[in-house]
Write a structure and sequence with these properties.
Length: 441
């Protein structure tokens, strides 16, 4: 691996030249002259010493006065002061406190999947497709529970293609888990463990993580990352917030950039502020010989609507293409920043409704904003597309919209029966939102 080399120059200074005493020639003096010279030097020394004493006293007095005046002036200068906010004053935890407090809310995830591989060295050189079991590791954060399940948030790529999932808790107890819902576009997933499968000793040892507000983060603030690095078990790294609001090619999620070490197996783990609150979900790192210390975590504030969707989702399977549903709208995403700037509710701003849309003739109209589908919040077209993948044509669902009435938005809910996508394939192709930018809606 090519590494950058730095030239650490040692600053040296030229040595002082060695001053050797100069040997001067001397003449022998006569005794009488020596006596006169000694007396004369004594008189001159006395006069000079008296004058020097008076001068030094005067000069020292001036310097002392000036120093005192300078000290008084300095004491009167107002220093620039910094007053810590209440949030900053509350940040009294150190990294060891944070790690100790958070470990009960962390799990290690093992994903066992079956992949098809080509065998090019079979009998007589035949090319045969074979399947082999593959195992990968990741991390999860205990995010909540319902009446029957413990809910854990992680990355979609941690649980992708899983045939078997298991989680290991802080006490090293392992339990089987199932995927409750995924959002590939934002690299998020929620998995569930049945409460009945968790031993009582483990139930008393684990806890639900405390969530923070990633919108309050500032560049330069210290953060802590916890995750199952390389599958060895939970480990802790620390760094700072390097940048905010980043986006990378592999996901639509809004990212926090950090120089805290994030390695394979850390995916799905927690990025914590110095209050021990989850502000991000570790997701990716930039790997290159030219780059060091560029890790990314999904902003917890922007991820929570998606996570809530996945947590509350009824257990469903994706429908087949023959049963795929159709909504028949086009629109634009209203992000949180656009919502704050223009006072438009966050969701999907409807720009057109097709003539064959199930929403035609309802309260859903152009310029209204779709905010919920079947009771689950949607913030973008990708959210709505992901929801529709689990609903078959002919199902009846509630769609919640914000409709302009006068100078304000009013919430309304309409009940619609979803159309069949295959019956509208030509319309979908013409509008380029079958499998395109807008999703299958």
């Amino acid at each position: 691996m090519l590494q950058n080399e730095y030239d650490y120059r040692i600053h040296t200074y030229p040595e002082e030249p060695e001053h050797k005493p100069e040997h001067k020639k001397t003449n022998k003096a006569q005794p009488g002259k020596i006596v006169c010279v000694v007396l004369l030097c004594g008189l001159l020394f006395g006069s000079s010493a008296a004058a020097a004493f008076i001068g030094v006293n005067a000069l020292w007095g001036d310097k002392t006065t000036q120093a005192a005046e300078s000290a008084t002036a300095a004491a009167n200068v107002s220093a620039v002061s910094y007053t810590a906010s209440d949030a900053e004053l509350s940040q009294t935890l150190d990294v060891s406190d944070i790690a100790e407090g958070m470990m009960p809310a962390m799990v290690s995830i093992t994903n066992i999947s079956v992949q098809e591989v080509q065998n090019y060295f079979g009998m007589f050189g035949s090319n045969r497709a074979q399947t082999q079991e593959s195992q990968s590791s990741g991390t999860g954060i205990i995010i909540g529970e319902n009446d029957s399940e413990l809910l854990i948030v992680t990355n979609n790529h941690v649980v992708e293609d899983a045939t078997t999932l298991s989680v290991c808790f802080v006490d090293n107890e392992a339990c089987e888990a199932t995927v409750k819902g995924t959002d590939p576009d934002n690299d998020l997933a929620v998995i569930a463990v049945k409460l009945s499968d968790i031993p009582s000793t483990t139930a008393s040892a684990i806890k639900i993580a405390t969530l923070g507000d990633s919108d309050t983060l500032k560049v330069g603030q210290q953060v802590v990352a916890i995750g199952n690095a390389l599958g060895y078990g939970q480990s802790v790294t620390t760094g700072i917030v390097s940048a905010l609001g980043r986006q990378i090619d592999t996901t639509d999620a809004i990212m926090i950039q950090t120089d805290a070490a994030i390695n394979p197996g850390n995916s799905g783990g927690a990025l914590l502020n110095m209050n021990g609150e989850v502000v991000g979900i570790n997701s990716a790192k930039f790997s290159s010989t030219d780059v060091e210390g560029m890790g990314y975590a999904i902003s917890i504030t922007t991820a929570m609507p998606i996570i809530e969707d996945l947590m509350n989702r009824t257990t469903r399977e994706k429908v087949t293409d023959d049963s795929a549903s159709y909504l028949g709208i086009t629109g634009e995403d209203i992000t949180s920043s656009v919502s704050a700037a223009y006072g438009i509710p966050q969701g999907i701003y409807v720009t057109a409704i097709n003539d064959d849309s199930p929403l035609k003739g309802t309260d859903v109209a152009v310029k209204s904003v779709i905010t919920h589908f079947d009771g689950i919040r949607v913030t973008s077209y990708s959210n709505l597309e992901n929801r529709l993948q689990y609903y078959a044509a002919g199902e009846t669902v509630d769609v919640t919209v914000q409709v302009i009435e006068g100078n304000q938005y009013v919430e309304k809910t309409v009940t619609v029966t979803l159309g069949r996508a295959s019956d509208h394939s030509e319309t979908i192709a013409q509008n380029n939102f079958g499998y395109g930018f807008f999703g299958r809606v």
